[in-house]
Design a protein that fits this description.
heterotetramer; A: 445 residues; alpha/beta; 7-stranded mixed β-sheet; 4-stranded antiparallel β-sheet; globular; B: 482 residues; binds pyridoxal-5'-phosphate
Chain lengths: 445, 482, 482, 445
């Protein structure tokens, strides 16, 4: 069994047809002294036993904590159609659509996904997906180096610290001048950016809303960036684009983001979806697969992978990226999600997130000793300053059934007492109020 | 077919959102706000269902068609693993929870999965430690290149070159280049393996590493691997194992035992997780003992008391290569698959995968030229040179196969075989299924002889036929415009 | 296509069973044992997956095609309801658990669902109580007939007849007959409703009941319903409401308010639970107050303390009509559907269903003869008489529609309309979808005029065309034989 | 919304085309005085809210009790392929396959299902499904009346009491002579049957294994039944047919059963699956839909609904049954289940059930005061006699996390101390041992 159909009879027949006497003979290129030193694996089990084992492990996780944790990875509702459709075997058991005639379903869906990403961000072209939001940002940085021929990158301290660490990791071995614009108590200043912006700068990387949830209009910064001959890279949170000024409208050159909020479950960190959009003029420098529309030999609309000359399987060491498998199925989920949500739905959803978060701010602000930061408008995530180290408070809240947010001390030394709180449309008023009551109890009982 | 955008009707809505149960908040200033809503589709849920259901039906897939796409290991993806990934105890778990105080204890099940997967992959590869973080094979390669760099950096050197055979997959040289290395390409000898003399010649002290696929991309296991690795080591170059073809050798040989220093696996190939029309994949990387210090963080560890925790600080770690712990749902499915098959099952996988490939090779070699006429491993590579004499390209044969209900073999790769047709049947296919494919291939071979024009006009039974790729690249149309 | 049995290969296995962890028991005596194993398929899991996936692709369905099958209410089946039925708290629950001491308290959620569904259906129909037990519409009818019998029996009488209009669905007379009644058929008048005079004439004291569909099966609401019911009541006959067409009148009129005594609903029609290629359905039955005593047991009740329990002893109950509480998964989906739509949504359903039907009627009546040319409710019935002049039957038009990507309307019913084409678009279909259908129907009408042979040769685009039904019935081949 | 696509604009246009001014006008056939007396329904909610509500209700059910309750409805493993394939929208959103050209998928699957039922039971023909095991048995009884023209039915007391109540219910209004063969302490005798068997008898209804789990060979009874010119109806448990003598081999005339054990979840009682098989000579008297193979006009294999002249939509009051919608999707699940289980799989599965139950018998027999009934061999269900009323013992076991079986006093007055225990392949040795330990504790602590 083990999903292998061969009967003994068939194996015999096949060996005979091949002209060998045993299966071992087929492996004769492997010298006997290459035998595994060990191969100590458990013996197989039935799917029912394996399922029970994994069910037990799943039940050990407190996935049902009431979630106020975000940090770029959000607990949104996922309409049932998303999985019902992406769960069609013709999608999930297919490979990359190299053969257009038997892959039009995937190709058209990805073309639609690209279109939706462009519409969301107000950009001109988007690729077929990248691994996740963090690696997408790294790819955007590399792309800017290629476009500008420069080798300095400024990255705002308000960019997700996880992404910043990823950027560092990938560039360690390259000779890139990497400058981080410091933040002080969750605030970075334009002056700091301008101070470092020069004619060696390939790109300035910004995030909106930033890691603290703060909303900004980066148009003025981007203007200065362009004056310096550099590119502006924006990392965005797609759901917020139902409400917020678009990076395209701010004149960004490359936009990336984490697509998890577009219909993907949190799933302990993956599979997620990196998206990347840019201006048409940069398309040949863009990493990743791209689907284009064309006509077939009968003149019918047809979709194909295009601009493959940028890619590793053609260009090898000269490719714009090494990416091969991407996150196609996640992109499919995203376009299904955006389709069923629709034009007005995205607007309403963004509003719902905003309203809930504002309500949470007001509710938390009423607790003694809790200071809700209001220096900038926020979308669905915001910082509160607590009277003591937020790390222990978080532990107490977890005990009370909440996943209460991120203690910021881990990433920002001057913010030990701060907590980053996220409120999506999934949180009810009642849950928000209970959260506040419990927080108060933790602080003062 | 119409685009979902073209099905829009102004004002139509698809989804009902929860009612707002809090007061409407004061609006933010207009300068922060979007001017016009994004022109997303305005369609009903049924529109969406019909649209994507119909699209799905335009695909070939493993569940509907034999899919012998070489180098991709399109094996059967067990259905029960899908259910495991949907268990809410996993699917609704926030990845940052274990990084909070107390959160680790509330994610023991997920951490145990990661730990166990790692241990299983360690045993399967013969390496010392594995990171589950890389999100696909190429991502694993890049991670591997960074590990190589970290190793040399740690020794105070900064070498310049990475060697790749010319038969290597495109991601290999690309990954090396992106990590900051220049690549040296080594030709393939007439037996289908890396030319040993050339390799020896090119090897020098500036070579940081060597990337090998094994069996390689023409399906051949290089019996000199150990010598190749020793030679590299003598030059303090590390040897990287591209595990895309691990399906051929499970339980037969382990990269860690024969001299490889770093290994990536493609879980979406060898371990039966679905390819998802091109992803998500998962490309865990294993290393030999002295390289474990460089592995990316966070890493799951098992504490003496039997609980699991995240190690976030590993001093010499290369850092973070992805947001979290890898494509967790893919790792879950891999874990389930390995537990189901077990030791015997995994060995059987390789035996039957190799059996199937050789069966096809033997049955078709009278009709098509084998690139290397010898016993192969999990895949065999033909060249359509004989057919080309009649003007029939590998591409035409591919299209003719589509008409006959088969997904074509890989034809764009390997680049070293002219008019390549790289056939990887996998162990999942029955003799009956192979025989049907063989009959179709023979039929096409005959037709190429007798009536090549018919082959060149394929496919006829598909919604689209031979899309114009030049037009696609010249008159770029990459998105819908309102 | 091959049968799954024909794909068998001797000795091939599909499923791995759990290992036996107990000692092998002593065998039973040979006389109790099966002689030879059943010749079930010997196939791999992938064989099974491919086989049934391919079969699925040979069907039309709501998710793939417009499906205006009259009287069947083929509306969109919301996906989220499928997930609800899969919640293990429901799907793994043994139905006998609440019948054990203490078990009731451990099934409160399931019992509450049953209770709430019943209350919602009570409000929707205007009846006093509902039983969720009947497993389809026809099963509801049979239950209804047994309730009628119980009512009369309780009064010491045993009446003989049940009246059904000739437009009624075949299940109506069949249910009456099976319950032990003789049926009296009443013709339909020229306005498409039951001939009132004839009805009055046939009504007598031996009539136990009258079965009506309302709107009836030609899509017309009989404005005299109240009078009809009163007349029946004056003869101590009960009036049964076949609720198959409830989709037309949600929130517009309730059977309970206008004199009906017993009602069944087809949840798989009005309440959007999937038809499953012909089932499972669900046909709850509601009754007016004085009939509640006859309802089948067990019934869910709400206790004063707010908990739910099963009432198993209702003295005059007709007894048990099914093993348990109905098709529970279908009831769950119904419950979810009603909660999602709510009052306003349900009213909108009927309004849009009726709008769609009238739109089609108006747009096609120039091309086909309307059986009754008047405003209709949720469906309209055409007659292909005009086309028949050219030798084109409703059946031919149906087959031509298949070629054009539409499921045909109902054509075997109602029997009172010659060459009937009964079109029920439902509220789920958009104007665009209707317009495409209308265009196809117009095209076929023109073709029937100009080139009837083409219509009669349809369908051309399907795997099979016009199977020989006579052969099927004469040379019975009802199963695979080894 | 509410799954209705119409925009206001479209509604206006459509009304105009129809030639009316308002939606109300379309309802003018409904007299105003027919207005609903009330229509008090809650307002609509999103799928997310409804899901949460139902999740909460689901969580209130103790579905995870370790299950030893059977009684004809069994807790078997269901391979994941079953739902994955039956969950294909082309199957579950289609209607009855009236139009063969666009329903070949369903038609072929049902034909295969019919074949499998015939193979399992060793009978010649089977129908496309009936509602459930209970109504199938009733239909078999009706069928026997039609075939024999007689009106007396004997039913063994070992037939599932739920089914017996169903039979009574349906026949109350008909003039049928219904005789129940009594059982005493779970045993009925052949003599009792023969006593009532006469030339008015249309059918004798038996069950194997019977409600107490006891296995029998009914060949001798059936011979006598046939000598009396009556038909033998057997109600069977399909999984047991992997091991037990088939009803066909016993020469039964009609075979029915509950198909739930063939890949359907317990699901609180439905949807289930009634199957019915018989001899070819009775096929025209058989209720329910039937799929037959034929050839299409090009000579290709094709499947159609056949013998429709028996059915209500053609024959109306003269039909063999009133059934219309049946349990098609459940039949599909059953054939998928049987296909993946396969020839040897069914044998192995039956054996596994048998072995586990025998182990449980041995284990329970070791408890003081527990008497395991061994007068007949059993399959996977058996009776034990406890030292006191089993009803209270059941309650205690439920408290301890077990669904321990059925107290037989409810259906058999002389069996108040008896418990009917079922052990399927899902129960592990460890669970069986724990069950025994707990039972012992309940009895003696
Ligand atoms: C030999 C080889 N190496 C590497 C890769 C890249 O793997 P991935 O697509 O997972 O990035 C592939 C994928 O086809 C491959 O065949
Ligand atoms: C008017 C009418 N009554 C009754 C029924 C029978 O319902 P079911 O198929 O659920 O038994 C139908 C089904 O088509 C119908 O249309």
């Amino acid at each position: 069994m083990s999903y292998i159909p061969h009967t003994d009879q068939e194996v015999k027949q096949m060996l005979k047809d091949i002209g060998v006497c045993s299966l071992d003979e087929l492996f004769k290129d492997i010298p006997p002294q290459y035998q595994p030193a060990s191969f100590n694996l458990p013996e197989g089990r039935s799917e029912f036993e394996v399922y029970e084992h994994l069910k037990r492990l799943a039940d050990k996780n407190a996935a049902s904590l009431v979630n106020f944790l975000g940090c770029g990875f959000y607990d949104h509702n996922i309409p049932a159609v998303v999985d019902a459709l992406a769960g069609r075997a013709e999608f999930y058991t297919a490979y990359t659509p190299y053969q257009p005639e038997c892959s039009q379903g995937t190709l058209q869906a990805i073309y639609e996904y690209q279109s939706a990403i462009c519409l969301l961000t107000d950009m001109e072209v988007a690729n077929a997906s990248l691994y996740d939001g963090g690696t997408a940002l790294y790819e955007a940085g590399m792309m800017a180096l290629r476009i500008t021929g420069r080798n300095k990158i400024l990255i705002d301290g308000g960019v997700n610290p996880i992404y910043r660490r990823i950027m560092y990791t990938y560039t360690t071995n390259l000779s890139i001048d990497f400058v981080e614009i410091p933040v002080s108590h969750g605030q970075s200043t334009r002056e700091e950016i301008y101070k470092h912006l020069d004619d060696k700068t390939a790109a300035v990387i910004l995030q909106n809303p930033n890691f603290f949830g703060a909303i900004d209009d980066h148009s003025d910064i981007i203007k200065r960036v362009h004056q310096a001959g550099a590119l502006a890279i924006e990392s965005v949170y797609p759901v917020s684009l139902g409400m917020l000024k678009t990076p395209g409208n701010m004149d960004a050159d490359i936009v990336t983001g984490e697509g998890q909020s577009l219909g993907l479950p949190l799933s302990f960190g993956g599979s997620y979806l990196g998206f990347l959009a840019t201006r048409k003029k940069h398309v040949r420098k863009m990493p990743g697969r791209i689907v284009g529309e064309t006509a077939d030999k009968r003149g019918n609309r047809a979709f194909v992978l295009t601009l493959q000359a940028r890619e590793q399987h053609i260009r090898r060491e000269k490719a714009t990226s090494n990416i091969c498998s991407n996150e196609s199925l996640c992109a499919l989920k995203a376009i299904i999600y955006l389709s069923v949500l629709g034009k007005q739905g995205l607007v309403d959803l963004a509003r719902l997130n905003f309203d809930k978060a504002e309500f949470a701010k007001d509710t938390l602000a009423r607790i003694k000793g809790v200071e809700v930061k209001r220096s900038s408008p926020t979308f669905n995530e915001f910082t509160v300053c607590l009277p003591r180290d937020s790390r222990e408070i978080v532990a107490s809240m977890i005990e009370r059934g909440f996943n209460p947010g991120l203690p910021l001390g881990k990433y920002y030394e001057d913010m030990k007492n701060y907590l980053l709180v996220c409120v999506t449309e999934r949180r009810t008023k009642e849950e928000i109020v209970r959260y506040a009551e419990n927080l108060e109890a933790v602080l003062w009982n | 077919m119409e685009l979902i955008f073209e099905e829009s009707v102004r004002g139509r809505k698809g989804l009902r959102l929860p009612k707002c149960d809090v007061p409407q908040a004061k609006d933010i200033s207009g300068r922060y706000k979007r001017e016009k809503p994004a022109q997303l589709p305005e369609v009903s849920e049924l529109d969406v269902v019909r649209h994507f259901t119909r699209l799905s039906r335009m695909n070939f897939s493993v569940d509907t068609h034999f899919y012998p796409l070489g180098s991709c290991t399109m094996k059967y993806n067990p259905k029960f693993t899908e259910n495991i990934a949907k268990l809410t105890g996993f699917s609704q778990l926030h990845p940052l929870l274990p990084q909070l105080l107390l959160g680790g204890m509330l994610t023991q099940g997920a951490l145990e999965v990661l730990y166990n997967v790692e241990r299983l992959l360690v045993e399967i590869t013969g390496m010392t430690e594995v990171t589950t973080e890389p999100l696909a094979g190429a991502h694993g390669e890049l991670t591997g290149m960074m590990l190589i760099a970290a190793y040399h950096r740690d020794k105070g050197s900064r070498k310049k070159y990475v060697i790749v055979p010319d038969s290597s997959h495109g991601t290999n040289p690309a990954s090396a280049a992106i990590a900051g290395y220049q690549t040296i390409s080594i030709p393939t000898d007439k037996n289908g393996v890396m030319d040993f003399k050339e390799y020896k010649n090119k090897l020098n002290s500036e070579v940081a590493g060597l990337m090998l696929t094994c069996p390689n991309t023409v399906g051949i296991f290089n019996s000199q691997i150990k010598e190749i690795c020793s030679l590299a080591h003598r030059n303090d170059a590390l040897v990287y194992y591209d595990g895309a073809n691990l399906n051929a050798i499970l339980g037969k040989v382990r990269p860690g035992d024969i001299g490889f220093d770093i290994v990536h696996l493609n879980l979406h190939k060898t371990f039966a997780t679905p390819h998802g029309s091109g992803g998500p994949g998962s490309g865990p990387v294993g290393v030999r003992k002295d390289l474990t210090q460089f592995l990316p963080v966070p890493k799951v560890i098992k504490r003496p008391d039997g609980t699991y925790a995240l190690e976030e600080n590993r001093q010499k770690s290369i850092g973070r290569i992805a947001s979290f712990y890898g494509n967790f749902d893919v790792l879950l499915k891999t874990y389930a698959y390995i537990l189901l098959l077990g030791k015997t099952g995994l060995i059987e996988v390789s035996e039957k995968a190799v059996l199937n490939a050789n069966y096809i090779a033997v049955k078709l070699k009278k009709y098509y030229d084998l690139a290397y006429d010898r016993i192969c491993m999990h895949e065999c590579v033909f060249s359509a040179t004989r057919q080309l004499a009649n003007g029939v390209h590998a591409l035409d044969i591919a299209k003719a196969l589509i008409d006959r209900g088969f997904h074509p073999p890989t034809i764009y790769f390997p680049l070293i075989v002219k008019e390549a047709m790289m056939i990887e049947p996998t162990e999942s296919e029955s003799k009956h299924s192979l025989d049907r494919f063989i009959a179709a291939m023979r039929g096409i071979a005959e037709l190429s002889q007798n009536n090549p024009e018919v082959v060149k006009s394929a496919p006829l039974n598909t919604a689209v036929s031979r899309p114009d790729e030049t037009k696609a690249a010249r008159e770029l149309n990459l998105r819908w415009i309102a």
